[in-house]
Design goal:
The structure is a homodimer. Chain A is of the alpha/beta class. Chain A contains 8 helices and 5 strands, in the order E-H-E-H-E-H-H-E-H-H-E-H-H.
């Protein structure tokens, strides 16, 4: 019997590797991307191409009307994206409050509607110290909430599957290389220009992960 | 010191009474309505007028791109709205899975962004047996999840305020009458025609609540 997964895919290294992992595990796939007015919304096209390669269903959920509700975040506002390494001090401005709760809630609605077995998301250990909604405790609490929200309304109950929750990004790169992920067709940079800027937190993290993994980095960086 | 509340308001009896209650308790108000492609989206205009009367901020969040994800619900699809009294058997088709989790998640994002003290919603006891996401256990689990989601990202943490959770709809009508709620300017009917149909589950429930409350029902019903 085939199992079905609804996966949140941004088009970056982590979520594209997640999609390849799910496919290798035999899941039928429905990939969902979100347009929340992020500066780097070109990432959505990388998610779309990932879905096409994996013959997965694909939807972009338009959450741009949340923009006026989400003032004060560099990812959606005209605040400058901070440069340098990810660290609580300089990246807090990139937090869209409650973003994962909203995206997972939408993914669960889809999973319930189509009888999926799993909702999958790609958060990892490197996210924990800056994003409170990437921590194992949050993931557990979210799944517990969904069990109550969907009781009697979704059968089977879709489990929340976060296979990278206790991995570092370098481990994801190693796994992606094994799975044949075309890393050159993933997007990380928060700036959303033609090439990866090479300087924002997510570019620095991306570069470092390839170096630590010992996997050639096919990314073209601006500097 | 003034406190601020972000409240989910659909334009019906319960949520409009909720807004009047919050105002009477001295809260600064931000009312949020949702357009999720519901057949009865005219309710949004009732919410907008409620906000204008109470001098509250008001936003409509466009979730219509969720439509393709939410197949199989009579509120959003071309399934006929069932008539008769609310009961698990014939109203299950009106359940949009995970709707409250999504709407509350969006309200929490707004509350975090603007430093609100409270997120308020109007679910009541009559909702419990048909909507799993209106039960006290769900509400508790949702707030616990949000505490983790927003840790360090929202100060103060906005409490989840559901003052009608243990009330019946007739109690809400009694309270609304005391607060001077203009019930004629609220909308319940799922059919969204010019007048309340008088036959769908929510019309039957509305009529009954006024009768049980001993409050004159100003609603004009089609039949």
């Amino acid at each position: 019997m085939t199992h079905r997964a609804v996966a949140i895919v941004s088009g970056g290294v982590d979520s594209v590797t997640l999609a390849y992992l799910l496919r290798s595990e035999g899941f039928d796939l429905h990939l969902i991307s979100f347009d929340y007015g992020q500066r780097h919304r070109k990432e959505v096209e990388y998610a779309r191409r990932c879905a096409a390669r994996l013959e997965a269903s694909f939807d972009v959920v338009d959450l741009t009307s949340l923009r006026t509700l989400l003032r004060g975040s560099a990812l959606t506002d005209d605040v400058e994206v901070p440069h340098g390494h990810y660290a609580a001090e300089n990246m807090a401005v990139t937090v869209v409050p409650n973003r994962n709760a909203i995206m997972l809630g939408v993914a669960y609605a889809a999973a319930a509607a189509e009888g999926a077995d799993v909702v999958a998301a790609g958060m990892h250990s490197g996210d924990h110290f800056i994003y409170p909604d990437c921590r194992p405790r949050f993931i557990e609490a979210f799944e517990a909430m969904e069990r109550l929200s969907l009781e009697g309304a979704a059968s089977p109950f879709p489990k929340l599957y976060t296979p990278f929750l206790h991995s570092f990004k370098r481990d994801i790169v190693v796994q992606g290389a094994r799975l044949g992920v075309p890393f050159e067709d993933t997007w990380s940079c928060y700036e959303g220009r033609e090439l990866h800027c090479g300087r924002c937190g997510t570019c620095v993290e991306r570069r470092e992960a390839f170096a630590l993994a010992g996997v050639p980095d096919p990314t073209r960086y601006l500097e």
